[in-house]
Design goal:
Two copies of one chain form a homodimer. The first copy, chain A, has 17 helices and twelve strands. Chain A has 383 residues and is of the alpha/beta class. In chain A, the strands form two sheets. A seven-stranded parallel β-sheet of chain A has the order 4-3-2-1-5-6-7, sandwiched between helices. In chain A, strands 9-8-10-11 form a four-stranded mixed β-sheet, covered by helices on one side. At the A-B interface, strand 10, strand 11, helix 12, helix 13 and strand 12 of A face strand 10, strand 11, helix 12, helix 13 and strand 12 of B. Strand 12 of chain A pairs antiparallel with strand 12 of chain B, so a sheet runs across the interface.
């Protein structure tokens, strides 16, 4: 029996790698829908290969271009609710959400509410709207499968572990390209330098987030929701080789880790085929070839984004929403050359300081906090 | 409900640490029987504290001494079948076999055949009699729980993993005190040097086995039987810090590892409380404090015992039995100063070369091969 799958963000880094995985096991999946932002060229190629029933483009202009190709039997969606419409289709069993940013929140919720399992690569969904999403998961009794390599690692380590036995989550971080840079050097970091990640091949936003350690901060918040662990039981360890993808400490002190080469196709495949494991084209790990694994404490002095994420999570409510919204705008402004690298945490901290939060937010509160965080930051950037 | 437990080898390193574990959870266990070799002083103290119904001593002289103490309500057993009698008692639920050497085979089999779960610290049982033991486990539907830190690690990593998903077992080895010694230096190793293990606090025989890497060879054979993996899918990796206790590679290439401080109370406790995990007095692991984990290939040129174990396992049948028997005699002769360190593999290889083996041995064949291996080696040592 093949699973009907929708991929949100199909032309991005995770989306294309997910299609690699699906290509290698054609009998397991029917690609029902593909959603992209504006890359109509690549989306068209994907449509020709995987023959989905529906495709969506966030850009209306791009959607018009696709329409002009007159692809047979293809429903083309666009507009603000296009992804939600797509995931709610009856022939969908599983939704891979690989959209970047808070734009992933509403499609994730729509999928959950329609009773679909969700493979979540969009960590901002949980960062910004963790309580609402987790309540919906519970209510609709669907699977929320992590795709992030760290959360997939934790999820894998927890197979066969009793709920009460999880004592601590230990997230590893490569440390990014500036792990050894001084504070002064960080002030002068260029966009090109920040986009050169040492171990993972990823999209632009997550690469910048890795360089600031905000990515790890967002992952701390994501882990809190996925595994129901309080922030003081989530530890971040810098591990430059990116071989140990994360670890859990159990109640007896035993530590279970998941390791592998840095290849996103592995966690993507596990999320798509869970609970089964299938052969993978990814390279096998040789510890002897790797030779050495290093671990060190993160420096929140030089990388304040990590501290800000812990602080936002500790307060809770809409504070992580604002953290995430402000970060999205700040990263974009940095990539456009409008602010410096160390302005990113500075502006986010300012957004958090001015926020008057709601502690038990509903979806409206979250969307409002997200808007507010963005607007505040856009003003700061423009001033 | 408390479990009735028998500890075979209660005055040894594993036995005393098991009693430490049991002391910390008195409501979980009734100590029904304790068996020791000749250490009547320590055994008496253990009897006074844990009040078993039965005690046994391998040494008849020591058993007489214990008899003279007139301990109330204590049945004292001795003679060749004492341990077997003890494990068959009706009030026994679990047998911890921490006897050293092939002497552990018959009590293990007696426990299994009496329907008792066995926590196995006596790896020689599986090395010498793997096929017979595993058949009995299957037939009598009991649990065989590994206590060795490496096999406990693998067993922990495999919780929640499907049978078909185990692709490879990766056993770590500290490398022993002579990891960096040259061949010439190995020729001159003294007993004192060989007994100084860098990371684990263990008994004499296993410490020498660690120094020759025969311990890892025996563990390869043990892993073969416990986890039903062919030798070509069992890898040994030298890992001097002894933090990663072992790993498994799954069918998709994902690698799961178990880590922790080097404290035998952890794997002992897991075997005794399985599938539950309880709090432990063992120190918690801090990867940041450890800082660095190294891995390298073992050198079978300098440590031929590992090669001999793989070869014996590849041929199978009674060859591992002879390997183990010859090793026991050789280690004893080395500890008595009668042979040199590098004579150990030399003599074992000679014993394997002269052996005419049985490929599907029954218990009689195994006991005969064990005797033959010992006698042959004693002759070699004396010549």
């Amino acid at each position: 029996m093949s699973l009907g799958i929708v991929i949100l963000g199909s032309t991005g880094s995770i989306g294309t790698q997910a299609l690699d995985v699906i290509r290698s096991m054609p009998e397991r999946f029917r690609v029902v829908g593909l959603a992209a932002g504006s890359n109509v060229g690549l989306l068209e190629k994907q449509i020709e290969e995987f023959r989905p029933k529906a495709a969506s483009l966030a850009s209306i202009e791009a959607a018009h271009k696709l329409q002009e190709r007159n692809l047979p039997g293809l429903e083309i969606l666009t507009g603000p609710n296009a992804m939600e419409e797509m995931v709610e289709r009856e022939d969908v069993d599983l939704v891979l959400n690989a959209v970047v940013g808070a734009a992933g929140i509403l499609p994730t919720l729509a999928a959950i509410r329609a009773g679909k399992d969700v493979a979540l690569a969009n960590k901002e969904t949980l960062v910004a709207a963790g309580n609402v999403v987790m309540e919906a998961v519970k209510e609709h009794n669907v699977r929320l499968l992590p795709v992030d390599s760290e959360h997939s690692a934790i999820f894998q380590c927890l197979q066969g572990v009793g709920d009460r036995d999880l004592h601590k989550v230990i997230l590893t971080a490569s440390g990014g390209p500036f792990r050894e840079s001084t504070k002064e050097e960080l002030e002068r970091v260029t966009v090109g330098e920040a986009l050169a990640h040492p171990t993972w091949n990823m999209g632009g936003k997550i690469t910048i987030d890795s360089a600031t350690l905000m990515n790890k901060g967002l992952e701390v918040i994501e882990a809190h929701w996925l595994f129901q662990v309080p922030p003081e039981r989530i530890e971040v360890v810098i591990h430059p080789q990116s071989i140990v993808h994360s670890l859990v400490e159990l109640s007896d002190g035993s530590v279970i880790a998941q390791l592998g080469v840095a290849d996103m196709r592995l966690p993507i495949q596990y999320a798509l085929t869970y609970p089964e494991r299938l052969n993978s084209p990814a390279e096998r790990l040789s510890l002897i070839e790797v030779g050495r694994l290093d671990f060190e404490a993160p420096d929140v002095e030089r990388f304040p984004c990590l501290r800000l994420a812990y602080e936002a999570l500790a307060v809770g409510g809409t504070f992580p929403t604002v953290l995430n919204a402000a970060n999205e705008v700040a990263v974009q402004a940095f990539m456009q050359g409008r602010i410096g690298f160390t302005d990113i945490p500075r502006l986010i901290e300012s957004a958090l300081e001015q926020h008057r939060g709601v502690i038990k937010p509903d979806l409206e509160d979250i969307l409002e906090a997200d808007r507010e965080g963005r607007e505040y930051l856009i003003k700061l950037v423009n001033s």
